[in-house]
Amino acid sequence: MHIAEGYLPPLHAAAWGVAAAPFVIHGARAVVRQVREEPDTKLLLGAAGAFSFVLSALKIPSVTGSCSHPTGTGLGAVLFRPPVMALLGTIVLFFQAVLLAHGGLTTLGANVFSMAIIGPWVAYGVYRLTRRLGGGLGLGVFLAAALGDLATYCVTSVQLALAFPDAASGIGGAIVKFGSIFAITQIPLAISEGLLTLLVVRLLVRISPDELRRLRILPAATPAASKEVDA
Question: Which residues face 19 on adjacent strands?
């Protein structure tokens, strides 16, 4: 759901860039702090960025000729917190715009705001709430990835509605119109992303339990930490 190059009016494009900038700057500081304090997690940090790049580069045709795609930001949000994903997501979106013509430079701020800021924060909030209510790691990861994906498409719908309100029903009607364009493909995509992210976390539990303990995803000392994903 990247907004294409030149699609937004210049004022809207600039406004979203200004809105996203503080989050990206804070994210850069968070990444530096993460690498400095936990250098052993650098490979996992790169893997989270690569996961988002690959998933969000997939383009699946929607019902009206537009395209939908997963976001892949839920994994990094759960592992490293949303500020880190603000920077990683910006890097992902920049290179997709430059190398794949997916999204654009003029709409980079809007795409960063929806996919690299709001999506990860929703994902992390859902994950923390699920765990606090007694849900297991697996359920938390699945819901985080799926609902973070859906939140991204909802924000994009609002961004488009603000730029192009419906002549008869205004911004509210435009939100419904743009949201319905993606809903049919985005809901199964969100579920698929949740399941794929869950599989990745299960793999990480088996091959990188020490890194997950450092990130406080797994308890500090658990004889059978991998069983936590089954809950």
Answer: none
Cα–Cα distance for residue pair 122/77, rounded to 1 Å: 9
For the entire predicted model, the pTM comes to 0.90
**Count of domains for the chain:** 1
Residue 225 falls inside a structural domain? no
Question: For 166-175, how does the pLDDT look when each residue is reduced to its tens digit (9 = 90+)?
Answer: 888 999 999 9
Question: What is the C-alpha to C-alpha distance for residues 133 and 44, in angstroms, rounded to an integer?
Answer: 27
- Which of these, 171, 67, 72, lies nearest to 120 by C-alpha position? 72
d(CA 148, CA 136): 18
Query: Residue 157 domain-assigned?
Result: yes
- State residue 158's pLDDT score: 93
Rounded Cα gap, residues 212 and 217, in angstroms: 5
90's CB contacts (< 8 A; 6+ apart) are 20, 24, 27, 108, 112, 116
Residue 223 maps to a domain: no
Which two tokens mark 134?
Answer: 């007694």
Q: What is the pLDDT of residue 229?
A: 52
Does residue 231 carry a pLDDT above 80? no
